[in-house]
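Q: Sequence in, structure out?
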Amino acid sequence: MPKKSNKIWGWGGRNGRGNVPSEDKHYFDGFKLQVRAKPGVPQCEIDDKLKEQLKQAMSKRYVQETNALDLSKFHQDPDLGDYFCALFRPAMLMTVLDIVSEHIPNLEALNLEGNKLQSIDRLNVLNKKFSNLKILYISDNKIKDIHQIDAIKDLKLEELKLIGNPLCNKYKSRQNDYISDVRKRFPRLLRLDGTELPRPIVFDVVDDTAKIPSSQRMFVADAKAQEIASQFLQQYFTIFDSESRQPLLDAYDEHACFSMTISTSHNNKLNGYLMENRNLFRIYDTARRQKLLKHGRLPVVSFISEMPRTRHFLDTFTMDIALATQVMMFITITGYFQELDNKEQPIRHFNRTFIIVPEGRGYCIRNEQLHISQPPEAQLKQLNQQLNSQPTQPEVSALLPQTSTQSAKPVELSEDIKQQMTMTLSQQTNMNLEWSLKCLQETQWNYDNALSAFQEFFKRGQIPSEAFTK
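A: Exactly. Output:
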């Protein structure tokens, strides 16, 4: 008589071993009984009876003194009876969190260790449900990637446990990277996996209780250096904002160097400065680097004379004197200025670094770096409010000494400067020194006007051949 085979299919039990398919064979009275278990977990209906049992189980796990709730290995809690309450099931997890938020909304510490959590996306509700939560344990779960904890990065955690998750294996030999990647998400974190961390620098973290010291508009250790720098810069910016910048020839050393950089942005608002942008991270050609470096008094003043007419807002200036000796001073000025030649008259932000050295009875610029950037809309709005709230009177900066508001008088050029201008014009136009001198004298020693006049008359053919005889 042939043997009969009976197959019985079922689900794994609540001990959690149901995730592994199993097969048992038994023989009874000559019949083979084959039992197989499908992979999966027992299902249970979430009704009021189960919710009441959940409350009773969690009440024993709550510590009132520390305002902490321990839900570690919750599915193994004996108070749950025959129910298999696995928190890795989204519906069960949300039910439990809803109950907790209803009865303990001010919860400060939550332990979810050993709950076989693979995805923690549903934990993104923790920030809304528990605004006071500062401690979270989610170690010994199945979290595989550091990016998964982005779901809870809005929590203002001071302590976090992740150890025992697969993601930690990726950082076995990179502990510093592990701490850094976690702290990027939780800047206030003081303790990670039971280890104390250095206290964070939280200047970039919004904290209503933290009082950041007010910024100082000026850092100067030497009062005498401040007086010298303030007077020098007051004269400099008065002339820079005037109709002619030619008097600045006296402000630069004969061998002065000047360079300009800009912050490139997607809106291309600084395109007018782009061709002269000497950003060494973007320019690799040595010859072009050298060309963009203005070297010598005349090339420097000629370049800045071609820049748009400006109005500097002196009341926005900050000044730092990082170095002050008998032979040099290192000065950094930041602030805002407005372009007057542009129809829209846009406002720009600038950072100028001057190295000034003693020259005769005063000082002159040996090296200058100018950086121009486009302020974000929020800064422009704040600046406009500040300017509109000020009374309509001549602007005076607290950093620079007050002077007459009348336009600056032309500065008498020294003979050395006139001689250098004559030689430079001669080299640039190929005229002899006599005619170069005559051209400069007729344009009141304005180099740009002299060069423009030469180009105009040369096009018309009105310059005699004797002007080129050397």
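The CA atoms of residues 107 and 422 lie 81 Å apart.
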